[in-house]
Specification:
Elements: E1 2-3, E2 5-7, E3 10-18, E4 22-30, E5 36-44, H1 52-67, E6 76-82, E7 85-91, E8 95-97, H2 98-108, H3 114-132, E9 154-157, E10 162-164, E11 183-185, H4 193-196, H5 203-219, H6 229-238, H7 244-247, H8 253-262, H9 274-288, H10 294-304, H11 306-317, E12 319-320, E13 331-332, E14 398-400, H12 403-408
Parallel strand pairs: 1-12
Antiparallel strand pairs: 2-3, 3-4, 4-5, 5-7, 6-7, 6-13, 8-9, 9-10, 11-14
Length: about 425
């Protein structure tokens, strides 16, 4: 048996992700009624705990995410300091991030089926549109730009839920830390051209990044690759990539057209909102797989990771949670000044309302080779519906781009 380590009100179980800035644990906690819940705890690495700018960035992340209410955005419950450590407690999702799923696709040399790729991208587009159009309590636009939409920040649960997470480098009007000129934040291969050039960003940058994720789901490879970071920045800047149908000839032309439009270098020629992307993806799904639902995606993920699910179940049974509770439950750094020092989660500005989400064992027929949905034969691409009526876990990479080096890259003007 293993004894769970306690951090504030949370009992840390297994570590599920690790990056250069933080590590993430699956954790157990108890609500006011004594009911147990699984959450994810992002624990800041010790060497960064004294970095005021980094801590402020995490405060911004927690504040931004705690304001957002969307079924495809991972909830944040609190950002706290306890026992000398900083951490964010957030919604736990039983599943795998898309980066891990794509690694499995590469191992099996099979891309994600187009219907699954379309559904995942549509759910993320819906989440992005919700963030892009979010307002504060006085109905003022927050102008949130995620800036790090990438496979490692898209989690797919074993039941087919899709969650966008990690607003760690997102910008909003409430952010206190400003990005310095020449500092590019995000994972380079999923950046927009304007982001690679260090330009001012708007929501269309996230649309481009989503297009990169869709491309990779359809082909198993990112649209932009290079042997070094500077060459990669140049490729992203120029937005030149191999056609999807050249890599995977069986790709339906309708979904390739959606990816191409999202990956357009010119912002004016790109999709103007994430809602437009979602509408076209939903239209594609309705024609390509009329009876598609998230249960199909859940079955796909469970089948791919059946062995891992069994190991997770056995591992969770090995942990022992202490009966006693630490005196230092931590200070919630994003709570309202009027909140009590020991918050009542039901009344706190960020109510603690996770659904119990223990990893479950799938039924035997969930791993059957056959799929229950039917695919419409490919034909002439139908006109995509107009969208006017449709409303890391891993630490992000930061590239310091010296102004002198930027001038030597010979970047062409970026069209609006």
């Amino acid at each position: 048996m293993r004894r769970a380590q306690q951090l504030g009100r949370y009992h840390l179980l297994d570590r599920i992700a690790f990056g250069g800035m933080a590590e993430i644990y699956r954790a157990k906690t108890f609500d006011a009624h004594g009911h147990a819940h699984l959450v994810a705890v992002k624990r800041v690495l010790a060497h960064l705990a004294e970095d005021d700018d980094f801590i402020q960035m995490l405060v911004d992340e927690a504040k931004i995410a705690s304001l957002l209410r969307h079924p495809s955005i991972a909830r944040v419950y609190e950002f706290a300091r306890a026992q000398g450590e900083y951490f964010i407690a957030m919604e736990h999702v039983d599943g795998k991030d898309t980066r891990t799923i794509l690694e499995r696709c590469r191992q099996k040399k099979k891309p994600m089926p187009p219907e699954h790729a379309a559904y995942v991208a549509a759910e993320v587009a819906s989440a992005l549109h919700s963030a892009h159009t979010a307002v504060d309590a006085r109905r003022r636009p927050l102008r949130i730009v995620h800036r790090d939409v990438s496979p490692s920040n898209i989690i797919i649960s074993y039941t087919g839920e899709v969650k966008l997470c990690d607003f760690g480098i997102a910008k909003a009007t409430l952010s206190k830390v400003n990005t310095k000129t020449g500092v590019i934040k995000g994972k380079v291969k999923y950046m927009s051209p304007e982001q690679a050039l260090g330009r001012k960003l708007d929501h269309r940058s996230d649309v481009f990044s989503l297009g990169s994720c869709l491309y990779e789901m359809l082909t198993r490879v990112p649209p932009f690759t290079a042997s070094n970071e500077m060459d990669l920045l140049i490729k992203v800047r120029d937005a030149k990539y191999r056609p999807i149908s050249e890599l995977v000839p069986s790709t339906p032309p309708e979904i390739e057209a959606i990816a191409d439009k999202a990956l357009t270098r010119s912002r004016a020629q790109r999709y103007q909102t994430a809602a437009e992307v979602e509408a076209d993806l939903r239209a594609f799904l309705r024609r390509y797989v009329p009876n598609y639902s998230r249960s199909h995606l859940g079955r796909y993920v469970r089948k791919a990771f059946a062995a891992e699910i069994e190991r997770e179940l056995r591992m969770l049974e090995e942990y022992v949670v202490a009966d006693e509770v630490s005196d230092d439950v931590g200070e919630n750094l994003i709570a309202s000044p009027r909140s009590p020092s020991e918050p009542d989660f039901a009344a706190a500005p960020v109510p603690f309302q996770p659904r119990p989400t223990g990893t479950h064992a799938a039924a035997p027929d969930d791993f059957a080779d056959g799929e229950s949905h039917t695919t419409v034969p490919r034909g002439e691409p139908p006109a995509l519906r107009a969208a006017t009526d449709v409303p890391d876990l891993h630490a992000a990479n930061t590239v310091i781009l010296d102004p002198a080096r930027r001038s030597r890259t010979g970047a062409p003007p970026l069209p609006e």
